Amino acid sequence: MANGFNVAVAGATGAVGVEMVKTLEKRNFPVKNLKLLASARSAGKTMKFKGEDVVIEEMTHDSFKGVDIALFSAGGDISREYRPFVVESGAVMIDNSSAFRMDDDVPLVVPEVNAEDIKLHKGVIANPNCTTAIMLVAVAPLHRAKGLRRIVAATYQAASGAGAKGMHELIVQAREVLDGKAVNPVAFAHQIAFNLIPHIDAFKENGYTKEELKMLNESRKMLHLPELLVSCTCVRIPVLRAHSEALNLEFENDITPEEARAIIEAAPGVQLVDDPADKRYPMPLDATEKYDVLCGRIRQDISRNDKRGLDIFVSGDQVLKGAALNAVQIAELL
Ligand SMILES: NC(=O)C1=CN([C@@H]2O[C@H](COP(=O)(O)OP(=O)(O)OC[C@H]3O[C@@H](n4cnc5c(N)ncnc54)[C@H](OP(=O)(O)O)[C@@H]3O)[C@@H](O)[C@H]2O)C=CC1
Ligand SMILES: N[C@@H](CC(=O)OP(=O)(O)O)C(=O)O
């Protein structure tokens, strides 16, 4: 579009929405007009975009008239309610929630992994689960070179995965614990400060959580690998922002750590940080506010008698690459 796009951000005041607005600005996305939408609680407040105050509006079914691209980040129920109104208005909906990710008519996209799927959209494109997005930015180039068969993962997920309220709870609770006060967990099932919680999203009958099953199902869909094997344990840790993951990978073909490092170095969206002798490896503090996922601790899996197994460690800012940045990158490719 010659003069740029009319863009709406639904959930503009949230952990992801705020970063969407910043990312549109930082990447100089061609915005003709920006509409910031949130609940009635935020209506009338302002947010800065390119130095200007933009007034936040209460989102209604009529909010999308004249909008070209709607970046949605206000929760799955809201995405479900608004989808028909967005699509009817002619806007493309790029949705961060889990509402439509596994629908056959909705491409699920990380641009570095499966940008070609964007063109299949029928009005809605889904952004994957943040943990899955970070993993696949590093794993997809290895898969393209060597054929991925199986992933065994343990995650270390930041409080920001539970939104603005999750980050707030960690900060407040850390102070309460240090001051010897009683804590009152709300965003998390238990005290998160000075603790970790191996429970993210609801448990299913097989003992896995929904978060863990997203790693399986969403990876299969984006890599177009219906037989891919994935087992995962997702853990919430008292880090403010940026998720990390320990990944054990099995391939169809031999792969050495040297080959893997060369592949990662050449891949888009991922930065090799792998010099243990110099104490350089991915860490969430280093990944925070970075667009690239950090990948390191690359080593041959010594539990096998062949060279088809690797262990790697990744850290990525899940509010950015797992959500806001990914959505803006998709918009750039429309
Ligand atoms: N946090 C993360 O890392 C990731 C989040 N996501 C997904 O993104 C979505 C948002 O997450 P997050 O930013 O963390 O959540 P937050 O709780 O931080 O923000 C929620 C946003 O939704 C808005 N909202 C709530 N109710 C309404 C309503 N009735 N009408 C309009 N807007 C409303 C809020 O507005 P107000 O301030 O006015 O209440 C706020 O802007 C979720 O679906 C989440 O699963 C996906 C990947 C990663
Ligand atoms: N579940 C992620 C964040 C998230 O919102 O995921 P999803 O979009 O799949 O519900 C976390 O808590 O770290």
UniProtKB/TrEMBL annotation:
Q: What class of enzyme is it?
A: oxidoreductase
Q: Which UniProt keywords apply?
A: Amino-acid biosynthesis, Diaminopimelate biosynthesis, Lysine biosynthesis, Methionine biosynthesis, NADP, Oxidoreductase, Threonine biosynthesis
Annotated residues that bind phosphate are located at: 101
Domain Semialdehyde dehydrogenase NAD-binding, which positions?
Answer: 6-121
Which positions in this protein are listed as binding NADP(+)? 13-16, 41-42, 160-161, 318
The organism's superkingdom is given as Bacteria
Q: Name one GO molecular function term.
A: NAD binding
The residues that hold substrate are: 157, 236
User: Catalysed reaction(s)?
Assistant: L-aspartate 4-semialdehyde + phosphate + NADP(+) = 4-phospho-L-aspartate + NADPH + H(+)
- Signal peptide residues are none
**A GO biological process this protein is involved in?**
lysine biosynthetic process via diaminopimelate
Q: Which Pfam families match?
A: Semialdhyde_dh (PF01118), Semialdhyde_dhC (PF02774)
The record's EC number reads 1.2.1.11
What is the role of this chain?
Catalyzes the NADPH-dependent formation of L-aspartate-semialdehyde (L-ASA) by the reductive dephosphorylation of L-aspartyl-4-phosphate.
Q: How does it assemble?
A: Homodimer.
As for family, the record states: Belongs to the aspartate-semialdehyde dehydrogenase family.
PANTHER family, per this entry? ASPARTATE-SEMIALDEHYDE DEHYDROGENASE, DEHYDROGENASE, PUTATIVE-RELATED
Which named protein is this?
Aspartate-semialdehyde dehydrogenase
